[in-house]
Amino acid sequence: MTWLLRRVGWAVFVVWAVVSLAFVVNNLVPGDPARMVAGVQARPADVARIREQLGLGAPPLVQYARFWRRLVHVGPRDVAKGDPVHSSCGVVIALGHEALHVDLGRSYQLGQPVVDVVATRLPRTFALALAGLLLQLLFGVATGALAASRRGSWIDRWVVGTSVLGVSAPTFLIALVLQIIFAQTLRWLPLDGFGKTFADHARCLVLPALTLGVYGAAYYTRLTRDELSVLLQQDWIRTARAKGLPPRGVLRHALRAALVPLVTSAGLDFGALMGGAVVTEQVFRWPGLGQLAVTAMLNRDGPLILASVVVSSVAIVASSVAVDALQLRLDPRTRARS
Amino acid sequence: MRSIRTRPEPLAAALVAAAGALLGVPLGCSGPLPAPIAVTGDAADAPARGGTLHLASFTDMRSLDPATGPDGLAMQAVTLLYDGLVDIDRGSNVVPDLAERWEIDDRGRTYRFTLRAGVRMHDGQELTADDVKRSVERALHPTTPNPQASLFEGLLGYADYVAGRAPHLAGVVVEGARVVSFLLAEPDAAFLTLAALPSLRPVCRSAGERYEATFSPCGAGPFRVEPGGWQRGASLRLVRHEGYFRPGLPYLDAVEWQFLVVTNSQRFRFLAGEQDLVVDPTQADYARYVRDPRWRPLGVPLVDNTTWGEAMNTRMPPFDNVEIRRAVAAAVDREHYALLRPANMVPASQLLPRGVIGYDPTIVGQVYDERAALEHMRKAGYPYDPATGKGGWPAPVVYTVPDQTTNFYTSQILQQTLARIGIRLELRLVSWPAYLALTQRAGSSAFHPQGNTEDYADPSAFFDMLFTTSSIRDEGSANTAFYSNPRFDDRVGRARHEMNPVARRALYRDAGELLCDEAPWAFAWGLHDFVIRQPYVRGFAAHPVWPLDVRTVWLDRPDEAGRVLRGGLR
Lengths: 338, 570
What we know:
The complex is a heterodimer.
Chain A: H1 2-28, H2 33-38, H3 44-53, H4 60-71, E1 72-76, E2 89-95, E3 98-103, H5 114-149, H6 154-168, H7 171-185, H8 198-231, H9 235-242, H10 247-274, H11 278-284, H12 289-298, H13 302-330, H14 332-337
Helix pairs in contact in A: 1-13, 5-6, 5-8, 5-10, 6-8, 7-8, 7-11, 8-10, 10-13, 11-12, 12-13
Chain B: H1 11-24, E1 52-56, H2 72-81, E2 86-88, E3 94-96, E4 99-105, E5 110-115, H3 129-140, H4 158-162, E6 172-176, E7 179-183, H5 191-194, E8 223-231, E9 235-240, E10 254-258, H6 263-271, E11 277-279, H7 283-291, E12 299-301, E13 306-312, H8 322-331, H9 334-338, E14 345-347, H10 370-380, E15 384-385, E16 390-391, E17 397-402, H11 406-419, E18 425-430, H12 432-439, E19 447-453, H13 460-466, H14 486-497, H15 501-518, E20 521-527, E21 530-533, E22 537-538, E23 554-555
Parallel strand pairs in B: 1-10, 17-18
Antiparallel strand pairs in B: 2-3, 4-5, 5-7, 6-7, 8-9, 9-10, 11-21, 12-21, 13-19, 13-20, 14-20, 15-16, 22-23
Helix pairs in contact in B: 8-10, 14-15
């Protein structure tokens, strides 16, 4: 329990530090968000008025304090339409007549509450991250185990060679190949988009998930192969073999031992993917957080930038905590150390 | 007639196609283009009603509210959703739209519009003069994020209204159910063209009196938004407004955009007949289209309405010396620039682009002459000998350029060109927002590219903002050359109020020649979009102001009703 509290406290500190750093950097880098809203050719008087409307007239420290004060606060349970104080809030938990609100402000460019934008896009990013990671693990562990069990054979060499190719190929190239094969030529799957129904979403998810799967699988192939290769030379494996355990059983035991580094990598990868698979989302028009973050950066859309940083940092920190917890279960040595 | 619904290929063929395309992609030459989709009719056919026009864009649509000063992409939809009191025709003339006529009184201070009878908005309500006043006040209200509001600062009572001292705009007067007048403090020859801008386009009563971000698009244009038809960041579908006041129009049942579609995907869709136009294909694709006799006639260059120049800060060395500026203007090889993007770029030797009203082809402007450039360097006191490489400006000049733009490439040409007259450039690559901030700040950037696109059909859209003394600010200056010349200010100020077209043209000519001579910018290149269309898209032509004007487009595609869209889910 103490361990968990310590980890959560550390996680909160990390999120605070990362978001604060993002706030400082966003304010130091040259660029006027009001100009980005108004357009290149807007007259100074119009830019100045828009700057005031966006609340950018206040000093950065005041804006910083306002951001944290508003991030989580208590407000009315039902927000009236046009309520000037809580119109950009998202209601998280009802507390009697009141409720816990989350307020990430209003996007400068979209004019929408950032909470709404994030709430719409987060599940899509989650779906893509999860599907992509599962495919990476599926392909990676299977081929890695195959290569390790046939070490030195032509299968091993082929798997290693292919994984080098996979690691080297940028995602946009993999995406393009998949689009040409499955969308343009075979016409089995949509080229891009998100669709309107659940079935549409599922069909649209296949190619971007496959892209991430192919790209990341190469890494897991190498990791699994290398881990298993070392483990399969261990004394306890030799003993198991000497006792007559069939090769499949040996591999199963070794795989369990190889899980620790795999879980660590997968957990951290999942956190990173939750920040958004930028290129993949862009090519496939998958409307997730990565696409949003890039647009926000290009437009100096402060509230969206901070929201993206909050989501990414929370995802990475949460994944890291989850990985630590899983390691405790998987590896008795870790349990003993903590 | 050729069938456009192609059969799926076997897997082996798909792999071959992928390999072939991959080999070709980097070179931009992935095999011969498929034939355009055949049509049965001929060019003389009468327009047919029906069908959906499918469009796509690399960017997203931000707002459909005319009060928010829509940008290029949003303007494509806004011109379909909202009609104005007046419109600009393809010859750049102001023509009646929702107003059937207008009168100009008080020597250009009063513009009185009489609305057509029986104009129905998308919600079925009849348009009245009160709607016009309410819409204008909504668009110009100080709480509205309208980047074009100050274009209307000449209206009587504007200052009080935007400062919150007056509840209504005194300069907009309802004189009857169908008559509305605009009162100006001073005559304004550009007001009629300004009246065609989105800010003055009526919106439905449901929009209320003040701007709300939750506004549901509703106007009097030929199309309306289909319920649930706008998926932000994904797509927009407009359908015909059956109550549109022009009989028989629009021809199309619907117009549909897909947003954030990368260039490759647009090409796939277009060649498969699932996207009907492509705006600005890659230069490699452009080369393929114009080389192919089947496709060449289907390319439509849009109007040249943008000028880019090399802006020189007249308050910073070395450009505080007019002879150095003249040397740069003479050294710029405009033809060389234009080779970078033949689909879009043309040489520019003066401020106004060729497609803008007021462009004067008789102005010689700035011309490329390296010998003259060297002579200007000598007069400036920094002679340069190209044979020995000695002389010239003694220190490198920092040139601020936005990365990942065409300017990144033009800057390298400029660097090579100016080296030949003794000016060495040091390129400072920055992001687009940083570029804007640095170049618009006094004393921050000596040399940088700057462009301007026509906002409204009048020379003042170029002259008023970019070079007048009143546009100079310490931060956010529109005049990034910080150029100040009382004679120029006088000519431009008088031209704005001059109601005689001949006298007005002479004033702008004088101002334009002054700019060419004093060279706060070395005018470099003009820009236009390029559109490639399928042959069944009829009635499409370039518009001088509105980007991608499809109001009179019709489809001549026999299988339109059963068109199968597979390229992406709709």
